[in-house]
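>> received
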Amino acid sequence: AYDHPTAEEIYTRLKENLSTSSRSTVYRNLALLVNKKAILKIATPVGPDRYDLVRKEHNHAICLECGKIFDFIYPFDFNELKKDIYNQTGVDCDFENFTISGICKDCKIK
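>> returned
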């Protein structure tokens, strides 16, 4: 199943298959892959950062209760959004996806 693992989860999975992998190597390579935009680092309000393999254009919704991350597709016009943000704030943004937060349906039921 496809998920949004933490660095520690990635390290644990690699350790099962490659007994020689070190935690520092995993963190260093994750940083390199994020820098090259091969993967996406998702900062979460609940728990550690998570990582996403950039396979297709999509966005994220994060549950503020449980921290679960959901992918969603919506046709944002990022160039237009960046212009609007710049016109309102003077901040020149550099982003290619959108992350929102809220409470997922499972947490609402609890």
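>> The mean pLDDT is 90.
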